[in-house]
Specification:
Number of helices: 19
Number of strands: 0
Structural class: mainly alpha
Distance between the termini: 21 Å
């Protein structure tokens, strides 16, 4: 079965109409598009609809970040997206990476990671979990490497869809079993956005898949709440009366940054030494170290329980800890890094871009926790690159570079 080498041509398979234009706009301005639509829908609209008293502050944060992202992407995003390198992991090697990531993810879940009972202190995490947790990110890495292999014609579209669907289903299955589904939703959106960005799915397909996730969300939340009630010994102990969709609204979360600063609550982020130490050294060899518990301390400061974790959203936390200058600098660096990595046309750049979305732009993004997770994933990616180098010797890479055509991302 012959397949076109250009991913851009796949994006145009449905014609050069509005869908193709939307895809090209997203490819060129990804961070502005993601942030602009996300916060407009879930922060600005709810704030205006409910007459949130902090609407002016919310709009100030939104316009500052959006303006920064647009400015940087106008400067550094090329008019056409770059080309994939013909070298890189083969499709079969990419599936090995994916398989290792899937096994590690399952083992980590069995050992107690991303588990509500562990989070609230009703269970404990197995000591060996820290040995396999660094490989969890190979699941997302594997999906991105297979997506890159698809762009070169090494993997069929059907196999790509099945692989991405199974990875997302695994995340949701383990999330429901552990009582925490937010991370699974963020993982799924990261995969869908990368598929859309590379033209593997068109905007209409993306919209349908996103709608299916929205329709299924109340059922997923109900199952999650049932498990949490079992853990706590009764539904009355869950607390809160928000509907599943109200959990999407983040205007009050964003406004809490201004409330915390004006009230003088002394909440400080962990030191940079702690962030780098936690992000680069596995806990299995590093021993006891200061916790990254910003979310629980913010929960207490806002009148909640220390067993819970809250956030003033990604931009709200950055503003709270680093001010307006820090907010502008962070999103300028994020926008620059995202477009440069993405437009390199590299499978690894695509994977790091997915991680940047997951930790800095998704619903579960948090600061400074996202910095720790990014460092952890970069270390894990380095290990994956070494593993692939051993699994795929230089002779194979040189042979493939002569016979594989270059494809455009």
């Amino acid at each position: 079965m012959s397949m076109p080498s250009s991913v851009s041509s796949r994006a145009r398979e449905g014609g050069d109409g509005s869908c193709a234009e939307a895809t090209r706009f997203y490819q060129r301005y990804p961070v502005s598009t993601i942030f602009g639509l996300h916060f407009a829908a879930f922060a600005i609209v709810p704030a205006l609809a409910s007459n949130n008293p902090k609407t002016t502050f919310i709009l100030s944060i939104y316009l500052t970040v959006l303006g920064t992202c647009i400015f940087v992407e106008l400067l550094f995003a090329p008019k056409v997206v770059g080309e994939f390198s013909s070298t890189g992991p083969t499709g079969s090697t990419s599936f090995v990476v994916l398989g290792i990531g899937a096994v590690a993810t399952v083992l980590s879940a069995v050992g107690g990671t991303h588990n509500y009972a562990v989070q609230v202190g009703e269970a404990s995490q197995a000591p060996w979990v820290s040995l396999v947790t660094p490989l969890n990110t190979w699941l997302l890495l594997g999906v991105c490497l297979i997506l890159a292999a698809y762009s070169r014609g090494e993997v069929t579209r059907r196999l790509l869809y099945v692989t991405a669907g199974c990875a997302c289903a695994l995340q949701f299955g383990l999330g429901l079993a552990g009582g925490l589904v937010g991370a699974a939703a963020s993982f799924t959106m990261a995969v869908l956005l990368m598929l859309l960005l590379t033209g593997a799915v068109r905007p209409k397909q993306f919209a349908v898949l996103g709608l299916l996730l929205v329709v299924a969300w109340p059922t997923l939340q109900a199952q999650r709440d049932d498990l949490r009630a079992d853990v706590l010994g009764g539904a009355n102990k869950l607390g809160g009366g928000s509907t599943p969709f109200e959990r999407f609204w983040i205007d009050d979360q964003l406004a809490s940054a201004e409330r915390l600063r004006s009230s003088g609550s002394a909440i400080s982020p962990p030191s940079w030494f702690t962030v780098v130490r936690t992000g680069t050294l596995p806990s299995a060899i590093d021993g006891p170290r200061p916790p990254i518990d910003t979310g629980s301390r913010m929960s207490v400061a806002l009148g909640g329980s220390r067993l819970n974790a809250t956030s003033a959203t990604m931009p709200g936390n950055i503003w709270l800890f680093d001010g307006w200058v820090g907010l502008i600098a962070f999103y300028a660096l994020l926008s620059f890094s995202f477009v440069r990595l993405l437009h390199r046309g590299s499978a690894w750049g695509l994977a790091v871009s997915a991680v940047l979305y997951l930790y800095f732009m998704s619903f579960s993004a948090s600061y400074p926790d996202g910095l720790v997770r990014l460092l952890q994933d970069l270390v894990s990616f380095a290990a994956a690159a070494l593993f692939i180098r051993v699994l795929q010797p230089p002779s194979i890479r040189r042979k493939r570079s002569r016979v594989t055509s270059r494809g455009k991302l």
